[in-house]
């Protein structure tokens, strides 16, 4: 949703939100990346509630960006390199519905961009399994507790351990 400064937001779920911040955080035009929860039926859930798998939420990141500097289309293209679009039951070592891959759109334009990008990815031949990432309307986004924010900066050793659970290898395939 564009605000009066011309910024917009994108919400992506792709497994543990600890690993979803860093790939977007330092890009030009990115104003902030917040870890949180969305897509569920409990108001303002806690980490423990979301981890229980009973709230319907995904762990997600909300990215505030300047579309003139870094367009939404480029964010979606990067998302495919960060989250495995062929795994509907989690991401890498993270298993459960709260880790499912979802692009949450907040406008008709975002929906169309995400759907076209997903279709292009499916037709690209990059993956030998179907693309299962859901594209859903944005729901209320609840920021996670403070200790989850900027996790990769606050806990670099634990972040490296989490990333070594398959995500780093997945991302490396796009750096060739």
Spell out the blueprint of helices and strands:
Layout: E1 8-13, H1 18-25, E2 30-38, H2 47-51, E3 58-65, H3 72-82, E4 90-91, E5 94-95, E6 102-105, H4 108-124, E7 134-137, E8 141-143, H5 151-154, H6 156-163, H7 167-172
Helix pairs in contact: 3-4
Number of strands: 8
Major sheet characteristics: 6 strands, mixed
Helical residues, percent: 25-40%
Number of helices: 7
- Helix-strand pattern: EHEHEHEEEHEEHHH
State the secondary-structure class.
alpha+beta
Strand coverage percent: 15-25%
User: Can you tell me the residue ranges where pLDDT is under 50 for at least 5 consecutive residues?
Assistant: none
N-to-C CA distance: 34 Å
Average pLDDT, rounded to a whole number, is: 92
Instruction: Trace the largest sheet across and list its strands.
Output: 7-6-1-3-2-8
Summary tags:
single chain, 176 residues, alpha+beta, 6-stranded mixed sheet, two-stranded antiparallel sheet, 7 helices, globular
Report on the structure:
With 176 residues, the chain is an alpha+beta fold. It is built from seven helices and eight strands; from the N terminus they run βαβαβαβββαββααα. It has helices at 18-25, 47-51, 72-82, 108-124, 151-154, 156-163, 167-172; strands at 8-13, 30-38, 58-65, 90-91, 94-95, 102-105, 134-137, 141-143. The chain has a six-stranded mixed beta sheet with strand order 7-6-1-3-2-8. A two-stranded antiparallel sheet has the order 4-5. α4 links the parallel β6 (102-105) and β7. It is globular and about 40 Å long.
């Amino acid at each position: 949703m564009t605000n009066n400064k011309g910024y917009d937001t994108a919400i992506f779920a792709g497994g543990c939100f600890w690993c979803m911040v860093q790939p977007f955080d330092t890009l030009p035009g990115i104003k902030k990346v917040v870890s949180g929860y969305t897509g569920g039926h409990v108001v303002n859930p806690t980490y423990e509630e979301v981890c229980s798998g009973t709230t319907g939420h995904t762990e997600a990141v909300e990215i505030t960006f300047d579309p003139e500097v870094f367009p939404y289309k480029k964010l979606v293209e990067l998302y495919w390199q960060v989250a495995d679009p062929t795994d509907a039951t989690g991401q890498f070592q993270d298993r459960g519905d709260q880790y499912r891959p979802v692009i949450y759109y907040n406008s008709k334009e975002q929906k169309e961009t995400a759907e076209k990008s997903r279709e292009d990815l499916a037709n690209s031949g990059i993956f030998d399994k179907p693309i299962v990432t859901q594209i859903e309307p944005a729901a209320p986004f609840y920021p996670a507790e403070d200790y989850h924010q900027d996790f990769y900066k606050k806990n670099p050793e634990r972040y490296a351990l989490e990333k070594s659970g398959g995500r780093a290898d997945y991302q490396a395939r796009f750096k060739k």
